[in-house]
């Protein structure tokens, strides 16, 4: 039995759909059903369900983008740091492993050797390594809480989610709707591939720890736009900001994370991930408008 928090969000809904598809027993706890910050509520749920794993898909991302977190700092910290800390306490108290959806947005730039960031690299886009967005800083703090308190845990790092379903959170939807785009190289995560990899970690009982769950390889904004033009012809004219300076001067309140992440640890554990190119092309060929 799995106990799932945040089951109605962009990631959580995909999680619950896949658990149902695999016929895996689970209980969901929505925010409207219980106060996520009341520890007695959390303990009651674990005692009632007696789960094999606690899965946390909840978090505060800000709408329409991470700039909103700059204005909602208290809610951002509660969702991304306080709640993981409470779940970590719960995990230790009842000896139930915790599985937590985190973010690759705690990194930016490139490593000195030009390779992707690994799970062993300390975050370089966080409160301990400014400047950073408040969202990224809070996600790094959430990871710190889990690593310091929990004994059995998975931290699954998601990076720029996308798939074939038009959605405000979908990277491909954003590119097709934004007036102007910033060109940058990034690792990205197909939402279905991400969720399947996470559940595979549980079922295959891979070693506990942190995993970068991104599609193999990386891409740039301009490369994705080229695929969109090829596979989804439209009259839209894609425009780009001249450079980072123009983007941050006119369109953003806070710095953005742009980075490439290494998923070799995940692959070595026997978890399969498609290439970035394959996942992108498949999503665009099977695009489902909202």
Helical content band: 40-55%
Number of helices: 11
Total beta strands: 12
Major sheet: order of its strands?
2-1-3-4-5-10
Specify the CATH homologous superfamily.
NAD(P)-binding Rossmann-like Domain
Low-confidence stretches: none
Instruction: Indicate the CATH class.
Output: Alpha Beta
Average pLDDT score:
96
Structural class: alpha/beta
What does this structure look like?
With 290 residues, this protein is an alpha/beta fold. The protein has a single domain (2-162, 188-215, 260-274), classed as Rossmann fold, CATH 3.40.50.720. It contains 11 helices and 12 strands. The protein has helices spanning 10-21, 39-49, 67-71, 73-94, 134-149, 171-177, 191-204, 221-231, 244-250, 264-268, 276-285; strands at residues 2-5, 26-29, 53-56, 98-103, 153-158, 161-162, 180-181, 185-186, 189-190, 209-212, 219-220, 239-240. The strands form 4 sheets. The protein has a 6-stranded parallel β-sheet, sandwiched between helices. Strand 4, helix 5 (134-149) and strand 5 (153-158) form a beta-alpha-beta unit. The longest helix is centred in the N-terminal third of the chain and has 22 residues, at 73-94. The two termini are 33 Å apart.
């Amino acid at each position: 039995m799995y106990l799932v928090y945040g089951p109605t969000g962009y990631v959580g809904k995909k999680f619950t759909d896949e658990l149902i598809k695999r016929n895996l027993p689970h209980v969901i706890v929505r925010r409207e059903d219980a106060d996520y910050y009341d520890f007695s509520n959390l303990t009651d749920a674990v005692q009632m369900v007696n789960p094999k794993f606690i899965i946390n898909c909840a978090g505060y991302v800000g709408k329409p983008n991470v700039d909103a977190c700059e204005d909602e700092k208290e809610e951002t910290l509660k969702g991304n740091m306080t709640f993981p800390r409470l779940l970590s306490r719960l995990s230790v108290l009842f000896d139930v492993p915790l599985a937590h959806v985190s973010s690759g947005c705690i990194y930016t730039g490139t490593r000195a050797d030009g390779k992707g960031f690994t799970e062993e690299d300390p975050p370089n886009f966080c409160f301990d390594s400014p400047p950073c967005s408040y969202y990224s800083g809070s996600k790094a703090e959430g990871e710190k809480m889990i690593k310091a308190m929990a004994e059995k845990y998975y931290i699954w790092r998601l990076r720029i989610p996308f798939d074939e379903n038009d959605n405000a959170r979908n990277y491909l939807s954003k590119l097709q709707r934004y007036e102007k785009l910033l060109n940058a190289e990034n690792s990205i995560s197909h939402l279905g591939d991400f969720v399947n990899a996470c559940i595979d970690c549980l079922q295959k009982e891979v070693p506990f720890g942190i995993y970068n769950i991104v599609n193999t390889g990386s891409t740039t904004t301009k490369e994705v736009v080229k695929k969109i033009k090829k596979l989804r012809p439209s009259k839209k004219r894609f425009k780009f900001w001249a450079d980072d300076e123009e983007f941050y001067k006119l369109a953003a309140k806070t710095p953005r994370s742009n980075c490439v992440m290494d998923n070799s640890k995940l692959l070595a554990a026997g978890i399969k991930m498609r290439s970035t190119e394959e996942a992108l092309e498949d999503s665009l060929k099977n695009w489902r408008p909202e």
